[in-house]
Amino acid sequence: MAQKILVVDDERLIVDSVKYGLQKEDYAIAVAYDGEQAIAVAQQEQPDLILLDVQLPKKDGWAVCRAIRESSRVPIIMLTARGEEADKVLGLELGADDYLVKPFSMRELLARVRAALRRSTEYAESAPKNMTIGEVELDPKSHRAICRGKALELTRKEYDLLEALMTQSGNVIKRNDLIDKVWETDWVGDTRTLDVHIRWLREKIEKDPSKPRYIQTVRGVGYRFASPDEFKK
């Protein structure tokens, strides 16, 4: 069965051009022309990848990306005329997988699409199973986390950090190892970014963030997520 790609752009000329190029490569195509339609079509069609323009009527691409990430890990490539680094960072933080600045060639777009689909397939094959530790549940396939029965609103980095910690529950993970895992090995920013994200996670998970039970600090080393045994009565 052909892989399905959702193309979202308010410029019909671009949609038609991209659709034509992708169909020549045997992809099935769904389309949307505004943000609200994009969310509805994504839920209905369950595409394998989404090409998402930032400048959209009704809801912009960032809002669409955020909404989709609440329930899906489908690869999202942002398409935009914006080239500023801050815009790219925002898109990636909201959960986009890649960022392509207009104008772009069909060859480059196809290369990005193939790479994103390949990574998605590799992730699905190697994704850890659902985990439950205390009152925290993690569902890697749907990219969702639940605490005390309530779905958590997490950014992409917050989710990746929580997944990295829970996967190694009971073990101390060094700060640099966490940064390499979540922000990748080419990270050159302020390492305090890790501490900020840890604080945000604690505020969403812990009953008392000042006395964390789940995400524990191991001074001088890194962080540790409590093991399941610590919550057994």
Offer a few descriptive terms.
Arc Repressor Mutant, subunit A; 5-stranded parallel sheet; elongated; alpha/beta; 42% helix; 233 residues; Rossmann fold; 2 domains
Describe this structure in words.
By secondary structure, the protein is of the alpha/beta class. The chain folds into two domains: 4-126, Rossmann fold (3-Layer(aba) Sandwich), CATH 3.40.50.2300; 131-231, Arc Repressor Mutant, subunit A. The chain has helices at residues 12-24, 35-45, 61-69, 85-93, 106-126, 156-167, 175-183, 192-205; strands at 4-8, 28-32, 49-53, 76-80, 98-101, 131-133, 136-139, 144-147, 150-151, 172-174, 215-218, 222-225. The chain has a five-stranded parallel beta sheet, sandwiched between helices. The radius of gyration is 19 Å and the shape is elongated.
Quick overview of this protein structure:
A hairpin with a 2-residue loop joins strand 6 and strand 7. The N and C termini lie far apart (49 Å).
Q: What secondary-structure arrangement, pairings included, does this model have?
A:
Elements: E1 4-8, H1 12-24, E2 28-32, H2 35-45, E3 49-53, H3 61-69, E4 76-80, H4 85-93, E5 98-101, H5 106-126, E6 131-133, E7 136-139, E8 144-147, E9 150-151, H6 156-167, E10 172-174, H7 175-183, H8 192-205, E11 215-218, E12 222-225
Parallel strand pairs: 1-2, 1-3, 3-4, 4-5
Antiparallel strand pairs: 6-7, 7-8, 8-9, 10-12, 11-12
Helix pairs in contact: 2-3, 6-7, 6-8
Oligomer: single chain
Number of domains: 2
Output the radius of gyration.
Answer: 19 Å
What would you call the structural class?
alpha/beta
Question: Helical region count?
Answer: 8
Any idea of the CATH class of the largest domain? Alpha Beta
| Order of strands across the main sheet | 2-1-3-4-5
How many individual β-strands? 12
CATH architecture level-2 label of the largest domain:
3-Layer(aba) Sandwich
- Parts with pLDDT < 50 across at least 5 consecutive residues: none
